[in-house]
Amino acid sequence: MRVQPEKQQHAEIANVAGSAQSFACRPMSNALGAEITGINLARLTRDEMHIIKKLFLEHHLLVLRDQHLVDADILNFAEAFGPIEVNQVKSTDGTVLQAVHAIANVDSQGRPAASPLLKANYNWHSDKSYLPHPSLMTMLYGVEVPPVGGDTEFANMEQAYDDLPEGTKSRIDSLRVVQSFEYMLDKLGQRAIIDSAMIPPPVDHPLVRTHPETGRKSLFVGMYSCRIIGMAQVEADKLVAELLAHATQEKYTFTQKWRTNDFVVWDNRSLVHRAIPNYDMGAHRRILRRCVVRGGVPQ
User: Fold this and answer.
1) Which of 80, 89, 93, 215 has the highest local Cβ count within 10 Å?
2) pLDDT digits 0-9 by tens, 8-33
3) What is the helix, strand, coil percentage profile of the chain, to 5?
4) How far apart (Å, rounded) are the C-alpha atoms in residues 299 and 287?
5) Is this structure's pTM higher than 0.85?
6) CA angle 213-239-156, nearest 5°?
7) For residues 273 and 181, what is the distance between their CA atoms, to the nearest angstrom?
8) pLDDT at 1
9) Is residue 2 part of a domain?
10) Is 281 within a domain?
């Protein structure tokens, strides 16, 4: 992956007292992602939030360095983008996850575990795509990260769609794909992470969705995609696999190499992501705080 550090932008903003502040925004890859430094998310001004929202749409993913946040700060930031998503999945203590919750490789005693409870994170997906209103945005805050590894990888589904042959676009533009949480549970053997009564029913969405704010089209497939309406199962499985393989080529991806106190936000309407288990999970803890903003019905 080629990175272009020379493409650095500087945004000048004013705080409520009227004195000038500045923060830097640096693109992190050709595919997606920008690093932001020199800003305090716990004390954002209205002007700063306005600029962050514009950069979010432009880069799809923002890495805000050196943040010192509590859950209330994360929740306040999330609520500026929309309603907070309610969770169905359980934590290691058996309770349903709170709005701001931990994504971690630890057991109920806080010890690093080689086999974390949540295994779905290691497969390509867009958060909550199995719901009628999939996620708009997800955010993760790096509380404790391994000395090496524990990365998160993202793929730009808009770029991937743009590069498809016109014949393929014509073939898939009107298709609808069924997204199923139950399909994922059965495929990964993960029934223990949720009470059966809380498993949401399957839902169908456009296989090619249009971003409600930018108008750009993107592929909408991942680990929850179980079938395509009106298509034989073998053919549907083949198409989903081919599209996902195309979209996750290196030229469309960015890998977040975590640092403590990184705050990462991304647009689920244009990206898919996965965690990478490239560290000694039984020896090192990886603890992130997570919050998800609900989106609209994909069109």
Assistant:
1) 89
2) 444 433 332 333 457 899 999 999 99
3) 25, 30, 45
4) 35
5) yes
6) 35
7) 16
8) 40
9) no
10) yes
